[in-house]
Each structure stands twice: as structure tokens, then as C-alpha cells.
Write a structure and sequence with these properties.
Elements: H1 14-24, E1 35-40, E2 43-49, H2 50-57, E3 71-72, H3 75-86, E4 92-96, H4 99-111, E5 116-120, H5 122-132, E6 143-146, H6 152-158, E7 163-164, E8 175-181, E9 186-187, E10 190-191, E11 196-201, H7 204-207, H8 212-222, E12 226-230, H9 240-255, E13 263-266, H10 273-283, E14 289-292, H11 294-303, H12 321-335, E15 344-348, E16 352-358, E17 362-363, H13 365-381, E18 391-393, E19 398-400, E20 409-411, H14 412-415, E21 420-424, E22 427-433, E23 435-437, H15 446-457, E24 459-460, H16 462-471, H17 473-476, H18 488-504, E25 509-520, E26 523-531, E27 537-545, E28 547-548, E29 554-555
Parallel strand pairs: 1-6, 1-12, 2-8, 3-4, 4-11, 6-7, 12-13, 13-14, 14-15
Antiparallel strand pairs: 2-5, 8-11, 9-10, 15-16, 16-22, 17-24, 18-23, 19-20, 21-22, 25-26, 26-27, 28-29
């Protein structure tokens, strides 16, 4: 499955699949969360064309060597790190540590004719995304507390949509510069493979997390039913000692939030493996959910010595589904346990999204991942009334779900109508394809929009998860699932669930696994019944072979 070519023809009714997908991603559950506290990073975004800014700076990119930098000190650093992301079409973000260099860039950006000012900062964008869902609630109100710093311009942009935390007001706005570039754009001897953006900032309010104590006080009074956080990436270039102290303060704030109230942390672009490792070790045990893209996932894997640390993205900047599936499983299996609140990951990329969660910890997840995908499409296109002609699917006709079992695949026809799910061990996976916008109009805040929408459509049910852990020794005894040589039961269980969801296709409800037996030697047979939305039933039988390897482990052929 190494090519990841965009299929030239799809073996299903595309019009019907598109209509089914948009309908499935539509109205949220009537009993979902309604009070959201969001923090901590907020700002005003100045969005401009990157190449026009470089022209205004007199920088052509000639002789620039692509190189990543943890921070930007000079215009040369900016060109090198920009080219590093530009040549692969990756979304990047870095801090400009030198104030004079940042002023020079901002002044150049302000000379560009086509420029826009928008609400910025992950927290503020997620808060606005959630508030916008009020239109689906038939008169019900959504209440959103904004716990980030709010300057005069940002206050005008948010007024009426959010409640502001006392003490969060600033005398001046913090600005971030969004350097956008189009697919096929040429700069520095490279051609961008996709439409994307590079973000720069010089922002002390967010870099020092100055509103943390304000937010802590406000969230205690607000009585939220969901807490949504981001901004830890803004502290990356702070001195290590003071940064670690601030992370400890952040964790103390997390400890004040009841375990019945889910906490989501949205990650963002970073460069320092040591800092990412510190976030995983200190913060993950006290949050319930994270959101991240492929670059952020790769950095977490590098920091914690996980699989596929730099190989998630293949040809044409397309993310490998099998490697992502295995990496997400590794993360959950390593960090989600009885000593941690951590129970959910929302992964998003250009072509597909996956939510993986502890079984029974969250409900309505299949619709949530589809809704997040569709919200990404409409935001990128800046159009809520899209047709099939406006979008395209970039997943192949069939695709693997784990690099450990590359022959176990799902069909795009099954996923294109909404989302598909499977289980592995004590985890549930839900995947939705992305109807990619053919003529994107926006790149900023897509990940924030995806995660916020997914949270809005989700229902947190931690009691069911904790009860399952206590009653089922396989779920409570998590150490056995970390054995690198899987048992036949685990491999067959993974294969059965993937094959069943694939075999049922759009008939995605499995009502009964009526038979599972060893036919002969390594050949196992499973029989199951698929049920359509109308209640019709269809029996399917599939056979799966397992390989018994010389080292004693068992795997799919």
C-alpha cells in the first residue's frame, strides 16, 4: 500500500455517499455539553500571502537552505524554517524571539494590499467554533467562557459571543502573522504540494501564560461541563526553569477540575523534543483528551520513542493511515491507564481524521469524527453550501488501519458515507475521510475547528469506562496488552473487528457475532450479521489466517 495515489475512479455512488456524509455529520445530540470554558491563548491574526511579504522584505529565497529552527532570531532564520515547511506543504508555527525582527515582518505584512484581520489563538478559535453550533440547537443556548488575554480589537471581534474572565483584559492586542501560500506556489527553488500556512508571533501574554490564574478563578465559578485548553506551545522558547514552573502551575489548575468534567488539550507546532516529553509526562495524566495533526504526532512519537517517528507522511504529502493507526494505538496503550485521566485522541490530517478512545469513555464518537471532518471542509472552503463538484476524496479505494497488519484494510466506500469504526484491545477507533476543498480559501484554525466540533458532538461517560476497567480483568490488567508479542486472541480480535466493519460497509451496525472458530491450523472463520438503518439484516462469513512466527508471536499474514 505504498503509493497512496488519488483514485481515478471510485467504486461507489459518489453523489449518494456525499449526501449521506453531510446528513450524518449534521445535527448534534440533544443532550450534549452546553457550557464550555476555553483558554488560554488568544490574539488577533493578521493573514497575508507569504510570498508577497517576502517580496516586501526584499527576500527572494535564492540560495536559502531549508532548515528547521526552534525559534526565529533573524530574517534568514525565517526564510530557512519557512522553506522547511513550504517544500512539504506542512503547517508550521514558530516564535520570533527578537522583537525588532518581528516588527520588521509585521510592518512588511501591513504593506500587502490583500490582508485580513481575524480572531486568532487556538483557544479563541475553538470557543468561536463552539458558539457557532448554537444555530443547531433550536433555541438552546451555548455558554462559552473565554479565559485568554483580550485586547481592545479582539474584544470588539468577540463581543456577544463569549463571557470574558475578570482580569483577562489587555491594554494592547497581541498580533500573530499568518503567512499563507497556495498549492503550486514557487519560492526558494521549491514548489508547495498543498495550500497551507506558517504562523509567527512575538507574544509575551501567551508565552508566559499570564492569564492562567485568571482562568483558574473564572472556571471554578463558571461551572463548565467541558474545559478546552491550548497554548502550551507558546511557552516553548521560555527559559527552561521558568517554563517548567509554569507547566507545574498549569497542572495544579487541572487538578481543581472535577473528573466528571472532561478536559481537552489541543497541541500545536513545536520543535523541542524535551519540552514535548515534559508535556506528555506532566500534563497527559490530568487531561482526558488531546487533539493533534501529523506533524505534532510525529514530534510526540520522537519525544517518547514511539513508532514511525518521522515516516507518517508519504508521497505527495499524504499521511499513511496504517502508520497513524499503529502510532495512535501505541500512544493510548502507553499513556492511557488506571493512573491517568487520558482516554481520547482526535487526530486530524488533510485526507482523514481518526478518534481513538477508551471503550465506553465517550459516546456518539462516530458522528463526532464525521462532524469534525465536515466542519474542516466548510471552513477551508468558506462555504456552508458545498456540492460534490467543490470537493474531492484523496484516500485510496482501500487503506490499511495498522502498519502491523497492512493487509487488513477498509474500503473507502464504507467510510465515504459517514465514518467507520473498529476496536483493538480496549480501544475504539473511528475514522472519517475528508472531502478536501478543491479551491481552499482558509488554512488558519482548521485543527481547532475540527477538535472543537468533535468535542461538541461527543458525550463524556467516564463512569462506564471506570466500571468496565474494574469488572473486566482484560481492561484492568493493562500491562498484558503492552506485550510486544501479541496473543492469538488479541490479533484475531483486532482482525475480526476490522474485517467486520469493512465487510458490513454502509450497513455499519454489527448486531451479532454468531460464530468464531478455528477451521484448520491457522485458518479462523467468523460469522456475523450486519444490520442496515432500516432494520434489514445480512449474514456475512469471512475467513482470516494467522501466522505463528518463529519468535513465538502471532500476526496477520
Amino acid at each position: 500500500y505504498g503509493s497512496y495515489e488519488v483514485p481515478t475512479s471510485l467504486s461507489f455512488d459518489e453523489e449518494k455517499a456525499f449526501a449521506d456524509f453531510t446528513a450524518f455529520a449534521g445535527f448534534p445530540p440533544s443532550d450534549g455539553p452546553r457550557r464550555f470554558a476555553v483558554g488560554l491563548n488568544s490574539c488577533v491574526d493578521l493573514k497575508v500571502d507569504a510570498l508577497e511579504v517576502f517580496d516586501a522584505l526584499g527576500e527572494s529565497g535564492v540560495d536559502v537552505v531549508a532548515r528547521d529552527h526552534a525559534e526565529i532570531k533573524t530574517l534568514q532564520d525565517l526564510q530557512e524554517v519557512f522553506l522547511h515547511f513550504f517544500q512539504k506543504g506542512g503547517a508550521g508555527e514558530r516564535l520570533v524571539s527578537d522583537g525588532e525582527t518581528f516588527k520588521l515582518i509585521v510592518n512588511a505584512a501591513r504593506t500587502v494590499q490583500d490582508k485580513d484581520y481575524h480572531v486568532g489563538g487556538n483557544a479563541a478559535i475553538m470557543g468561536l467554533t463552539i458558539k457557532d453550533k448554537e444555530k443547531y440547537l433550536n433555541g438552546q443556548k451555548l455558554h462559552v467562557l473565554m479565559g485568554g488575554g483580550v485586547g481592545p480589537k479582539l474584544q470588539d471581534m468577540l463581543e456577544g459571543d463569549m463571557v470574558f474572565a475578570d482580569g483577562a483584559f489587555l491594554d494592547e492586542d497581541d498580533y500573530h502573522v499568518i503567512l499563507e501560500y497556495k498549492e503550486g506556489a514557487e519560492w526558494g527553488g521549491a514548489i508547495s504540494p498543498r495550500f497551507n500556512r506558517f504562523i509567527i508571533s512575538h507574544d509575551e501574554t501567551n508565552a508566559k501564560m499570564k492569564t492562567l490564574e485568571v482562568f483558574t478563578s473564572a472556571v471554578a465559578k463558571f461551572q463548565s461541563d467541558t474545559v478546552v485548553l491550548s497554548g502550551l506551545h507558546m511557552m516553548e522558547m521560555e527559559p527552561e526553569e521558568s517554563r517548567s514552573k509554569r507547566i507545574d502551575d498549569f497542572v495544579e489548575m487541572l487538578k481543581t477540575i472535577p473528573k466528571s468534567t472532561p478536559i481537552h488539550l489541543e497541541l500545536a507546532s513545536m520543535a523541542q523534543e524535551g519540552y514535548v516529553s515534559e508535556i506528555v509526562d506532566k500534563v497527559f495524566p490530568f487531561i482526558d483528551s488531546i487533539g493533534l495533526n501529523e506533524q505534532e504526532l510525529e514530534l510526540v512519537l520522537k519525544a517518547k520513542k514511539g513508532p514511525h517517528r518521522s515516516t507518517l507522511v508519504g508521497a505527495n504529502s499524504i499521511v499513511d493511515t496504517g502508520k497513524v493507526g499503529q502510532s495512535l494505538y501505541w500512544l493510548m496503550n502507553t499513556f492511557s491507564n488506571e493512573n491517568s485521566r487520558f482516554s481520547r485522541i482526535h487526530f486530524h490530517s488533510l485526507t482523514f481524521h481518526i478518534i481513538v478512545q477508551q471503550t465506553d469513555a465517550w459516546q456518539n464518537t462516530k458522528q463526532a469524527v464525521a462532524a469534525g471532518s465536515w466542519a474542516c471542509t466548510t471552513k477551508a472552503c468558506q462555504n456552508d453550501s458545498l456540492s460534490l463538484e467543490d470537493v474531492t476524496l484523496r484516500l485510496p479505494d482501500s487503506f490499511p488501519l495498522s502498519s502491523n497488519s497492512p493487509d487488513v484494510k477498509l474500503r473507502l466506500a464504507s467510510a465515504a458515507t459517514g465514518a467507520v469504526g473498529w476496536s483493538r484491545g480496549s480501544f475504539e477507533f473511528y475514522l472519517a475521510p475528508v472531502y478536501v476543498c478543491k479551491s481552499p480559501q482558509s488554512t488558519v484554525g482548521l485543527g481547532d475547528t475540527i477538535s472543537a466540533t468533535g468535542l461538541f458532538y461527543s458525550k463524556f461517560t467516564p463512569d462506564k469506562w471506570h466500571k468496565a476497567m474494574k469488572s473486566d480483568p482484560r481492561l484492568g490488567g493493562w500491562s498484558k496488552w503492552k506485550d510486544p508479542s501479541p496473543t492469538a486472541y488479541e490479533v484475531l480480535s483486532e482482525a475480526m473487528n476490522i474485517k467486520i466493519m469493512s465487510g458490513c460497509g454502509s450497513w455499519s451496525t454489527v448486531v451479532k457475532k454468531s460464530r468464531s472458530k478455528i477451521v484448520s491450523g491457522a485458518l479462523h472463520e467468523i460469522e456475523y450479521i450486519c444490520q442496515s438503518p432500516d432494520g434489514d439484516e445480512e449474514t456475512e462469513i469471512q475467513r482470516i489466517k494467522l501466522w505463528h512466527k518463529p519468535d513465538g508471536s502471532i500476526t496477520l499474514p
